[in-house]
Design brief:
The structure holds two protein chains of two kinds. Chain A is α/β, with parallel strands linked by helices. Helices cover about 35% and strands about 20% of the residues of chain A. Chain A has a single domain, classed as Rossmann fold (3-Layer(aba) Sandwich). In chain A, strands 1-2-4-3-5-6-7-8 form an eight-stranded mixed β-sheet, with helices on both faces. The longest helix of chain A is centred in the C-terminal third of the chain and has 18 residues. The relative contact order of chain A is 0.16. Chain B is globular and about 60 Å long. Chain B is of the alpha/beta class. In chain B, strands 1-2-3-4-7-8-9-13 form an eight-stranded parallel beta barrel, surrounded by seven helices. Chain B has a two-stranded antiparallel sheet with strand order 5-6. Chain B has a single domain, classed as TIM Barrel. The chains are: A alpha/beta, B alpha/beta.
């Protein structure tokens, strides 16, 4: 996204917290919760998801240019923020979609209430612990180099945005904020809430797991264990995609989501 | 002037066999406990020499690193509190943000103060970036945690009538009543370090002793910021004893031997930053603005020479380090003059934190370094008249 597009990004204020929000299309609401690297208005997946839906893609508090109240320190706080956002916009019959960190937030929302949510999609989601205490379920992204990260996170590491020197200031600021805010919410316990797994049984709406199979931040085994903890949830791999399937395979990602939305 | 002898208690035997990291992830199998024991005893002996020759003592701690085997400052402080007779015992610092429990910190430091009969100088620091990985304490909101831990420790040290309650943003205790309470009243002197003018100003407002580490002839803006903060609270200009500076020291009777010692000591600078890159800048440790600057590839050097050259401490020659005020090296006359020149430049600096041992410097060289300093330089520094504080602020 260029600086001009960034400056004109619409925003929304919920309980005094201003967040940027991309809005596309019309119809049933699709609330898209972005991963730890944020979301760009130019991401092709947004237009594809907007075919037949009203896509709402906010930047989480502390990400992009969105406000970050000092008191917000946990993913639980983010989940309550989104419950407030849903009420403020009076959204109903929502298709809730989250990728990685966004998937964790979506799961935390759904265990609280699904009153206004009819379907849930979790893609390469973090948020739970499945292995034993000495097994690192989720790669320690703060202990590896950028190059190592790109190898783990992307099916094709050349898809990684790393040309920092040519990026505008606003984009670099967003990258730095996204990194710090991710650590604020997910430093320890690392990328998960130890309580969440035992609450997942409360999710009783149709749930789909999409999984970029080349993800080496998370294993497919992790995704399948996550899926198994939600009653009736389905698991669908996405080939030629890593940790961010919505960016590496936007067409496949969007068509799976939309097919799931229309399924019985 | 007071002069504190400091060593990081390194394990240099591991420095030539690594794959790009001497800290955090260098396997501890590379440490031989028998060699480590000899080194610890040697470093303690050298501090006893410092005590004998009139120097004070500074200790620190780091974690998971071959550059500093002092993984808890309390062990060295405990031994020094019992075994030395007169030296001040400065910890610089106690890394508050890598520790989970400020109550324990208050208890440990009060105990050291009592055992040493009031000789503790209490330096609080937030902690270096790479040690958020070993401690697993979040690098986000570190300074907020730092100040809450600081407030708690001082309250614990100065509350004597009944247990108090603390339910803060980061720390929770319900019955706080530490035994022993400290010897020095109301509490041991507080020190801290900084590399930023904004934090220097805050330290000035508190009136704490502020140390800068190896900032050389780029120190003055930090001292000036401290002075502003200090005087903003209605005080006159701060005296020289509010300022401390850590420099490497290599002195010998002849210049050639001194320079040879300087080469060994400089290995501290050449090895200290060898750490796996991702651990150098954990998220949140630096501000967003600083991170944006770094993403653009703009990395600012911290040390400069008197004539305005910036130097890279990892590769600088001994002469460059002398020119930059990072190392004081030469005969006693030369070293005295280098230190006094530096104090004059700073507008007053009352506490020299002398790295009298570092790197590969051997025991005999270290002892000679300390004894010469104590005999030939320290008495003259005691007589040295610091610049008038008011003149420093008027400039």
């Amino acid at each position: 996204m260029n600086a001009a597009a960034e400056a004109s990004m619409p925003s929304l204020t919920v309980n005094g917290i201003r967040v940027d929000m991309i809005e596309r299309g019309r119809g049933r609401p699709l609330l898209f919760l972005h991963p730890e690297i944020g979301i760009a208005a130019s991401a092709p997946v947004l237009d594809r998801l907007a075919r037949g839906h009203r896509v709402l893609a906010p930047s989480h508090p502390g990400f992009g240019r969105s406000d970050l109240p000092r008191s917000m320190t946990t993913v639980d706080d983010l989940a309550y923020f989104y419950l407030d956002l849903i009420e403020t916009l009076d959204l109903r019959d929502i298709l809730l979609v989250g990728v990685s960190l966004g998937g964790w937030i979506a799961a935390e929302i759904a265990v609280k209430t699904t009153e206004r949510i009819s379907r849930l999609v979790l893609a390469n989601a973090v948020g739970i612990k499945v292995g034993d205490r000495e097994t690192r379920d989720i790669a320690d992204i703060f202990a590896i180099t950028d190059e190592e990260y790109d190898q783990l996170a992307w099916c094709n590491p050349r898809n990684a945005p790393r040309d920092y020197k040519s990026m505008p200031e606003a984009e670099l600021t967003a990258i730095a904020r996204n990194r710090e805010t991710t650590a604020r919410f997910a430093w320890s316990p690392y990328m998960h809430n130890p309580k969440l797994k035992n609450r997942l049984h409360r999710i009783r709406i149709p749930t789909l797991f999409l999984w970029g199979t080349n993800d080496r931040i998370l294993s497919e085994r992790y995704g399948r264990a996550y899926c198994a903890a939600i009653p009736g949830a389905r698991f669908e791999p996405i080939e030629s995609a890593g940790h961010f399937p919505h960016l590496e395979q936007p067409e496949a990602f969007a068509s799976r989501v939309l097919a799931f939305a229309d399924s019985k | 002037m007071r002069v504190y002898h400091f060593t990081e208690q390194p394990y240099p035997n591991a420095w030539k066999d690594h794959t790009g990291s001497l800290r955090v992830n260098l396997p501890n199998g590379k440490l031989d406990p028998k060699i480590a024991a000899d080194l610890y005893h040697r470093y303690y002996d050298e501090w006893l020499v410092a005590d004998d020759v009139g120097l004070d003592i500074m200790v620190n701690e780091h974690h998971q690193t071959s550059t500093c085997m002092s993984s808890t400052c309390i062990v060295t402080l405990s031994i020094m509190a019992r075994q030395t007779k007169r030296a001040r015992l400065l910890v610089l610092g106690y890394p508050l943000c890598h520790r989970t429990d400020p109550l324990r910190a208050a208890e440990e430091l009060s105990t050291i103060d009592v055992v040493s009969r009031g000789r503790l100088d209490m330096g609080f620091v937030k902690g270096v970036p790479y040690e958020t990985a070993p401690s697993n304490q979040s690098p986000v909101m570190m300074m907020d945690r730092f100040w809450e831990a600081h407030d708690f420790i001082l309250k614990a040290m100065t509350s004597h009538d009944e247990p108090f309650n603390w339910e803060g943003e980061f720390f929770h205790y319900r019955q706080v009543n530490i035994w022993p309470r400290p010897w020095q009243q109301p509490h041991p002197p507080v020190w801290s370090t900084t590399g930023s003018t904004s934090n220097a100003r805050v330290l000035g407002e508190h009136g704490y002793v502020m140390a800068t580490l190896g900032t050389g002839y780029a120190t003055k803006p930090l001292y000036d910021a401290y002075r502003e903060g200090y005087m903003s609270k209605g005080r006159p200009a701060p005296p020289a004893d509010r300022f401390a500076y850590l420099g490497l020291v290599a002195v010998a009777s002849d210049e050639k031997t001194a320079r040879a010692r300087g080469e060994f000591v400089a290995d501290y600078l050449r090895t200290g930053s060898i750490v796996h890159p991702p651990f150098r800048n954990p998220p949140g440790y630096l501000s967003v603005a600083d991170n944006v600057r770094m993403l653009k590839g703009d990395v600012r050097p911290r040390s400069g020479t008197r004539d305005g050259r910036f130097i890279d401490m990892r590769t600088a020659s001994v002469q460059d380090l002398i020119d930059a005020g990072v190392m004081f090296c030469g005969t006693p006359d030369q070293v005295y003059q280098q230190i006094v020149d530096f104090c004059d430049y700073c507008g007053g600096m009352g506490n020299l934190l002398m790295m009298g041992h570092a790197g590969y410097l051997g025991h005999e060289d270290t002892v000679d370094n300390l004894m010469l300093f104590g005999k030939e330089i320290l008495p003259r520094l005691k007589d040295y008249r610091q610049p008038n504080p008011a003149a420093a602020t008027a400039a």
